[in-house]
Amino acid sequence: KQMEESAGIEVVEIMIAPQIQKSPPVAFADLWAPKFMKRTIMLWILWFGIVYSYYGIFTWLPSLMVGQGYSVIKTFEYVLIMTLAQLPGYFAAAYLVDRIGRKATLSAFLAASAVCSYFFGQGGSSTTVLLWGSLMSFFNLGAWGVVYTYTPELYPTRIRALASGWAAAIGRIGGILAPTIVGLMISGNDGFNNVFMMFAAVMLVVAAVVWVMGEETKGKSLKEISG
Question: Is residue 39, in this structure, part of any structural domain at all?
């Protein structure tokens, strides 16, 4: 370069940009690769069940309680208390995921929500209805908090958005079906009890699926999990 400049020759530097390696396109089939298939099945069942139970319960809860003979004012008072119980449930789950793990916390909260749902349906007094309803709400939203943490951790960065999006979409199907099914069930004999027995069964199945098929991600790097 110095020789060219001394000879009066203008030197033009050409910068060659490094070649960027393109990532392979993301495809739906990636979710069903051998190492991700079990995770995908587990998450789809999880998302379907938890959205199904949440929207099925809390969409119809005021109407269900009025149908049991509670006044409109008392019903909304109870529903407000149950809704407020969701907040400590969320924070309790957030605390436990880093202590006992995602899988254990999620399974435990789902199972506890199932038990509370059953006893809520059997509640014969205002006290028991409020107690079991608040606990059901506490554990249900706590499980929701874990789901949002757990889902993206199970996939590598390349397909994480696709996987999370599909899981949430399957959940929305549950959210659409549940209110319709509850509407059909409450018109039958002993509809209130049957509705909450159904939700208890759904959440218990989901808890078992997570426990059997889920993989613990606590303390693992994304590279280890993506394996």
Answer: yes
SS (H, E, C) 54-121: HHHHHHHHHHHHHHCCCCHHHHHHHHHHHHHCHHHHHHHHHHHCCCCCHHHHHHHHHHHHHHHHHHHH
Residue 56 domain flag: yes
- How far is residue 195 from each of residues 28, 31, 57, measured CA to CA in Å? 35, 34, 9
Q: Which domain holds residue 168?
A: 30-226
Q: Is 115 a domain residue? A: yes
Residue 18 lies in a domain: no
CA atoms of 206 and 45, how far apart (whole Å): 7
CATH number of the domain within which 67 lies? 1.20.1250.20
Cα–Cα dist 172/168, whole Å: 6
Stated pTM of the model: 0.86
As for how many domains the chain has, the answer is 1
Contact 147, 223 (CB under 8 A): no
Per-residue pLDDT tens digits for 13-51: 655 555 555 666 788 999 999 999 999 999 999 999 999
Output the six-digit token pair for 29: 């089939």
Tell me the C-alpha distance between 23 and 157, whole Å: 11
Angle between helices 126-153 and 157-185 (to 10 degrees): 150
- Let me know: does 89 contact 139? Beta carbons within 8 Å: yes
